[in-house]
Amino acid sequence: MKDIAKLDGALTHRETRKRFHSKIEFTVIPAIDNLEIDADVAGWLVSRKICLEHMKFSTEVTDKPLIEMESVFKHVQTLDLYGCVNLTDQSLYSIRRNCLNMRVLHINSCAGFSAAGLYDLFEMLKKLEYLDMNNLRQLNKKGEVELFTALATTCGATLGSFNCSDTFGMNDAGITAIASHCSKLINADVSYCAKLTNPTIIHLAQSCKTMQSINLEGCRKLTSTCVSEIALNCPHLLDLNVSYIDRIQDSCIIDISLNCPLLRFLAACGCIQLTDESIISIAEHCKQMESLFLTQTQLGDASLFAIGEHSPKLKLLDISQCDHFTEEAVMAVVEKCRDIETLHLEDTRHLTDATLVALSQCSQGLLEISLDYFMDGTAAGMLTLVTHCTKLLSLYITGCTYVTDEVVIAVANNCPNLEYIDLTGCVLLTEAVLPVLAQKCTKLVSLTVIQCPMISSEAVDVAIELTDASIYR
Fold first, then answer.
1. Which residue in 3, 46, 230, 290 has the fewest CB atoms around it within 10 Å?
2. How many CB atoms lie within 10 A of CB 470?
3. Does the model's pTM come out above 0.70?
4. Do residues 308 and 353 both lie within one domain?
């Protein structure tokens, strides 16, 4: 943006500048990924009268520059205020007056907005299609019904996606108001809204029959009953997250498998009452399955054999911290699900180099693998893996105390697109790996060498000068 502003300042011909501003407004800025508007950018946009359809503000922005942008808000369709903790209801008032065509709004973690300010805003958003308001912990029971009734009655005909995750004050009345008026809702994230109960989720399922994605993670009061109702009422369901709900049982997951054949994503982490019966049913009936999160469950080999046999489209599997799988079952998935891109095996027992060799032969499209505390492997096995899985973007091998410099240097030589690598507790590593990673992995974002006693702070300081990545020691 500074370069654009500099070029703009050098133009003196009026018509040339006008054409330049039009080009910037409709072509250049929309193509810039992750452009964040801070006070300086805001001032420049206002001075040049450049109106954008999509605006993402810096988390440091305050009310003053945002309010001063009123004149360029008229075309805004997407407004992203994620983490803008310094904004207050003054900004909401300005948005309310000028962003009447807004379709997408992110106000997650905006702690300075009051329920009253949000109420006034919601009354004006008649075209809103997507609302992300997770982690608004200032909401409370007192004004919740009125707030969400205002939202639902105003944009009930258009709202398709709603996220109030981690909003501790969210209770049944608020979600009931949404469900009662927003029949076109297709995506709902109410994860960690711990006060929600079965009747509310049942009402949501019965009212929003075109629901495609619902996230109930951490809603601990819920039971299998409401999930079975989702299965019966939402046949188009694609994504379901019931992780860390203690009372989820086989019956509701089987209902999902029988009634939601298009399901492609299932997360049931920490659902310790589940048995192989439910996952076998998912594998047999949900042929579009792409992502399975089953960490911290009591599932056994039968589940993995079924996944390997019936889930050819699987791209992600998380079976970390599961103690009841044998290597034979894990290898069955590896050998048959050849499109796997993400695999989490951290802290999983009974696995050896045989798994690593199988991955090197069958999963050369791997983008991310987590092998934290892969205790029965060897440096030779790791070397085989990283030599053949050359598309890796993320590699996590915390606690693999046998990993040597040779392995990490092989990563640098064979995985040029690597972005994340965690070598915490790889005690045999020396400082020699740092410059190789820094120079050869040019896309590196994060490198962790915590608890690597032979890597000094001085060596990290030198490596920092060679890369833009964050290095943690």
1. 3
2. 12
3. yes
4. no
